[in-house]
Amino acid sequence: MIKSVSLIIPAFNEELAIQQVTRAARELLEQHGYRTEVIVVDDGSTDGTARAAQSAGARVLQHRRNRGYGAALKTGITAATHDVIAIIDSDGTYPSKYLPAMLEELERADMVVGARIGKEVHIPFVRLPAKWVLRRLADYVSGSRIPDLNSGLRVFRRDMAMQYFPILPNQFSFTTTITLAMLCDNYAVSYIPIDYHKRKGKSKIVPWDAGSFAILILRMAMLFRPLRVFLPIALACLAYGVVKMSIDLMHDPNISASAILAFLSALLLVLIGMLGDAIATRMGRFNPNAVAGVQLKEYVELEYEAQAIESEDHPLTRRN
């Protein structure tokens, strides 16, 4: 039974909410009997995010510059001392009250995701069309129904995530990537419906991030399910070739060069897709030792403790 957990909270200029999020999550987990380590990764904030997190009892790791949401999560996961990892956003949008139930569900799953399909979900309307399209694309690639592709509230085991570090991006698409990777590798991913509150402060996501997410999903398809990319294109080329050849034969006994090119393209696409699928199948799941050579100092640039930040005689931070 799970009795200890490392809670990772990535933060970038979230002074308004980080203290409340940190304290509420830690107290809740401790009330349910979990030995809890709270790690706040300050991703180059220019406000008082780090000081607020530290005052709430968190262990604070600080990047010298803003490196991205995914980079902050990698820092926290690498520095965690417990095998079970929970992540939550620092802006107050995700209620921490679901964490105990998610940790219980982790006994029967490899990853548990808080799906934002509860009774009170405040997602900006302008994002809904793009999210729907991306979710449908992800469903097709993974062959699974995904209620929430990039939820920032989830729990998983540390070694499960670290095996994917070589392909996990440093930006917001971290959660999208790990969801698709685990589904494509046939891990058990469970979903628990949750509410989603209005954020405190300004959102870091911009409209053109939707294009980046779409490219990411196609990239994951190339890594894990290449035939799902190549086969539809090959079928389209084949269909065009058949139609064009039929038209050619109706008017002339010769087949046009464009029809022949379409047939050859279809054949090449199928062969390339089969080769990619064979490689992906042969490789299987990523080698758990793929990140064995990663050193903590590569991810953790700055860490400080309560004595250093409260004392005027010591620098605000110390080097690892």
Overview of this protein structure:
The chain is α/β, with parallel strands linked by helices and 320 residues long. It has eleven helices and eight strands. Strand 1 (4-11), helix 1 and strand 2 form a beta-alpha-beta unit. Helix 5 runs parallel beside helix 8 (209-224), helix 7 packs parallel to helix 8 and helix 9 runs antiparallel to helix 10. The radius of gyration is 23 Å and the shape is elongated.
The shape, in one word, is elongated
CATH superfamily of the largest domain: Spore Coat Polysaccharide Biosynthesis Protein SpsA, Chain A
CATH topology of the largest domain: the name is: Spore Coat Polysaccharide Biosynthesis Protein SpsA, Chain A
Structural class: alpha/beta
How many extended strands? Answer: 8
- Give a quick account of the main beta sheet: strands, pairing sense, barrel closure: 8 strands, mixed
- Low-pLDDT runs of 5+ residues are 285-320
How confident overall, as mean pLDDT?
81
Tally of individual domains: 2
Along the chain, the helix and strand elements come as EHEHEHEHEHEHHEHHHEH
CATH first level of the largest domain: Alpha Beta
Strand order of the largest sheet: 7-5-6-4-1-2-3-8
